[in-house]
Amino acid sequence: MALAKFTSSSRSNLLKPLTTVFSTSDSFRRPISTSTDPLTIETSVPFTSHKCEPPSRSVETTPQELISFFKDMAMMRRMEIAADSLYKAKLIRGFCHLYDGQEAVAVGMEAAITKKDSIITAYRDHCTFVGRGGTLLEVFAELMGRQAGCSKGKGGSMHFYKKEAGFYGGHGIVGAQVPLGCGLAFAQKYSKDETVTFALYGDGAANQGQLFEALNISALWDLPVILVCENNHYGMGTAEWRAAKSPAYYKRGDYVPGLKVDGMDALAVKQACKFAKEHVLRNGPIILEMDTYRYHGHSMSDPGSTYRTRDEISGVRQERDPIERIRKVILAYDLATEKELKDFEKEIRKEVDQAIAQAKESPMPEPSELFTNVYVKGLGTEAFGADRKEVRAVLP
Amino acid sequence: MASCLRRYGRRLSVSICEKRELSTACEGQIILQQHQQLQQTAKSMNLCSAINQALHLALETDPRSYVFGEDVSFGGVFRCTTGLTERFGKNRVFNTPLCEQGIVGFGIGLAAMGNRAIAEIQFADYIYPAFDQIVNEAAKFRYRSGNQYDCGGLTIRAPYGAVGHGGHYHSQSPEAFFCHVPGIKVVIPRSPLQAKGLLLSCIRDPNPVVFFEPKWLYRLAVEEVPEHDYMLPLSEAEVIREGSDITLVGWGAQLSVMEQACTDAEKDGISCELIDLKTLIPWDRETVEASVRKTGRLLISHEAPVTGGFGAEISASIVERCFLRLEAPIARVCGLDTPFPLVFEPFYMPTKNKILDAIKSTVNY
Ligand SMILES: Cc1ncc(C[n+]2csc(CCOP(=O)(O)OP(=O)(O)O)c2C)c(N)n1
Ligand SMILES: [Mg+2]
Description:
The complex is a heterodimer.
Chain A: E1 6-7, H1 19-24, E2 39-42, E3 48-50, E4 58-61, H2 63-88, H3 103-112, E5 118-121, H4 126-131, H5 136-143, E6 167-170, H6 177-191, E7 197-202, H7 209-220, E8 225-231, E9 234-235, E10 238-239, H8 240-243, E11 258-262, H9 266-283, E12 286-291, H10 310-320, H11 322-332, H12 338-361, H13 385-391
Parallel strand pairs in A: 5-6, 5-7, 7-8, 8-12, 11-12
Antiparallel strand pairs in A: 1-2, 2-4, 3-11, 9-10
Chain B: H1 2-13, H2 27-37, E1 42-46, H3 47-61, E2 65-69, H4 84-88, E3 93-95, H5 100-112, E4 116-120, H6 131-138, H7 141-144, E5 154-160, H8 175-178, E6 185-187, H9 192-204, E7 209-214, H10 217-220, E8 222-226, E9 238-241, E10 246-250, H11 254-267, E11 272-276, E12 279-281, H12 285-295, E13 298-305, H13 310-322, E14 331-335, H14 345-348, H15 352-363
Parallel strand pairs in B: 2-3, 2-4, 4-5, 5-7, 6-7, 10-11, 10-13, 13-14
Antiparallel strand pairs in B: 1-8, 6-12, 9-11
Helix pairs in contact in B: 3-9, 5-6, 11-15, 12-13
Thiamine diphosphate (TPP) sits between chains A (124, 172-174, 202-205, 232, 234-236, 298) and B (70, 98, 100, 122, 126, 129).
């Protein structure tokens, strides 16, 4: 893999031991080093572009950033594995789609943009939410339908939002979030504050008509929107080639430029998103196709092994895993020891367990919440006849 | 619930309709089948298998029939289309890309050329991207072309309704939207036996049909289902429990809940008549009217939100027809006027106890 190719400028400036950080353990998010000395690392593979000049393969980063990539992705991974167990224990109900394998997209994207930029995605939204600064407690509480959840327990797995960080959240209808994203971008263009919207969708969603409708509108009006196709190569059980005449999703905007990115390489994602943000502010929309992979099945009812081979899954884990890639970079540059990284992971495990315990303490929403937020006021939410007696909700 | 449905099964197996109202391309075959029926047996199966059998029969009896939708050639998310591709080949049973508007539009075109297009929408919650195709294209094709064209061979299957923890987008009951559209039929079965016979009728009906399958019952409802090819009439409601004090009308999964309420009410000396509407449009007013004339009271129950639900239409029609016979206001025990909730599903649902309460208050009005 391309990890061997490093062009470091500051190998001498390595990080000091991590142990001190861990002994305090108040927050594993605290960087182990304040070193922000630039480091240049080559992306795994070159970008492939459509109707635009691709950005450079050399990505500027810092030891601090690499360590934070590692920690953030390791936390996302652990969180999703924990959600899997909670689902199996029936503590999470409803439909639940996990993101493990795709972490580099969420993390790399965040590294290139600010919280003033907007992100909107589909139902596979846990990690995107965490990327925007969502907490583990908010995640687990929402998953279990508790008041402490990011949507007050009313949304569940598919409906995470974080308004103050521009996360327009999780949408259940495949493809529907993309036109919304274009609307967000239109508002951003109006406000002239140089912010953009990232509208995420899957390879399956790429075949929905409304995507193309929205793309045309966005191109016509030069909207600062980046359509991010998270191509994990399957839409439920359907391999991309079965559903798409052209699985080159970055080219499917025809008149809209596109870039194909190794979505398992957080640095490549970061580079692409940085490039895309600048591009759309000047020229209107662009498509980023993130070549990625989901390890879990589509949702909790899909074992994920009937339409693809176990070899394929383990092959990706071995060759392309986004966390392992960053681990290798960190070790190769001697930014931390193997043991220190393992300790990080242990710490994360603890944090996740604590968040779950805390989430379990959070109460379910009040029954009256059934009727709130349908309208601004409780108009039209009256329950009739026998229902009223049964529900005993205080109508607002 | 399963045992309750099994009881339906026994009761209903005597009332299978052998009437064939459609002129299909295979008259001879039908006569042959009716003849063979006498020796044929029933087999215990769930609703999912019953649907699967109906699809097998549909494809077998009409070489110009096709089954398609998201992941259907792999069996579909509920396994209802299992084995069809193996049996009939990938030219007749095939996966489509993820695009509901495309699926339905494509089905209309296929049907307009004289084929039977059996389209699956993975969940009824995902039928909305295809709403325009159904409402504006499918429903009005015959009318606006002065009967030159139609898409009568189109049947859209979609699992609907609650499953206990489906949340906002895997639980909805959108039937009422489609009941507002002259030109399509809306059919909802309550049990495996019904599902097989009604689905075959829908597929062979010369009008476009939306067929909603109660997904809660896919595995839960088990009953004896005849192995042979049979059809149940559309637009014919069925009295599945006779009574004299109050009429209850419902469809789909809700009937087994209503049946339990009837049984409980009986313990309190209230005699309930329970009607399965089966076809929502065009619906069988006569059967409901006759029943209400007898009992003087009506309760309608469905999972969809009460406001603008199909219960409202039934209620209005019955008031028009039986005003002087009514002894109490018509009761509706339905879903609440909220989005389908995740954690609040038990509150939202028109449960047995809510129905029982409403039965009592209506009877004691
Ligand atoms: C309109 C609509 N149709 C169908 C579904 C059911 N469904 C949910 S996810 C999915 C597959 C989507 O695949 P993709 O876009 O590749 O996203 P991924 O799950 O791989 O992240 C399907 C068919 C839906 N939610 N909405
Ligand atoms: Mg996908």
